[in-house]
Fold this sequence. Notes:
The protein is mostly helical. The chain has 21 helices and no strands.
Amino acid sequence: xxxxxxxELLLRLRKEAGRTQEQQAAAINAVSxxxxxxxxxxxxxxxxxxxxxxxxLAHIAVACxxxxxxxxxxxxxxxxxxxxEDQDDVKRRTLLGGAAVGAAAAAEPWGRLAFAxxxxxTIDSASAAALVDRAAELHLSELDLSGRRLQSVVESHLxxxxxxxxxxxEYERALTIAAGETAALAGWVAWDLGEHQKxxxxxxxxxxxxxxxxxxxxRGLALTYASYGAATPxxxxxxxxxxxxxxxxxxxxxxxxxxxxxxxxxxxxxxxxTGAMRALERxxxxxxxxDHVNEQAWVRFVTPYRMDSLALSVYGHLRRKELTTTAxxxxxxxxxxxxxxxxxxxxxxxxxxLRGGDVDRGVYxxxxxxxxxxxxxxxxxxxxxxxxxxxxxRRERELSYHLEQFAS
Length: 408
């Protein structure tokens, strides 16, 4: 993949200054007076994984002795190139119509498999199983990979399944479902990275896969993901109402718990306390029958920790007295060895405590959340960071700024 000119410019400026990435981060922090830029972030800038905000660009300009306007112009051009690439990617990945395997996909085992299938051979059971299993594994990768890295891996696999679908034979339905699950994850990652139009395109194609395969839970997955980006809580509840219908039936208990938990969150945001508490009760009832490890791969993130975070969100919005006891039990469940999904729980816990009026405790948990999000740079912390930053008291301006930078 050709390096972006703006990333090359930042790399050249650092080398001309004779600095390591760590020294470059220190120089920028010295200008800003804050310790918000890390070596990891410098590395992301220089590998086109992230583009600095104008605020950070101003500090980079001073640290490197170059005009701010020059950096701002180049950064604007880089953002335009990224938008065009994103739009081209979505057009290229028309799943049900088939597509050629991209270079990134061909570099991996499943990509080479798809390339070989593209020669015209008929897919066999082992190849189909490998593609389906890989699609399932990707839903766990969210815990370990940064957003940009996960996006690259998911989209590469999407290319592989896309190529295989054109000659899937008796395995067409299984591969179509796996393709839809992979596209839904691609949409979620795109949304988390701020690429909302791209996310919508992926959710749409997931629903098309669900219709083609006759598999309603797949549409429920797309609708529930889409609910996070709905324009209003009312619109989110409309999406979730359909999703709840799609995940009814045997083998979907975990999915149902997630959907009802999301309904409770959105109802709480509208102030519908009765509706929120009923939906939360339905979520807990469904979870009593759930097996999040052995049902669909895409529900493995709905752990007991995640159920805690849904309840915390509801109680925080409604300022319910149960917030304190639920917060205590959530912290106890997390324990000292914070699991990867614990980043989400800490973020929801901090936001709920701040929203519920327990400011001192909320600030304490916010600091723990910020540390955990830095240590585990996966795709799940950014939206929580925005919510927490917006509710911190004025005395915590530095922490608020840091979380906003992390979210961007």
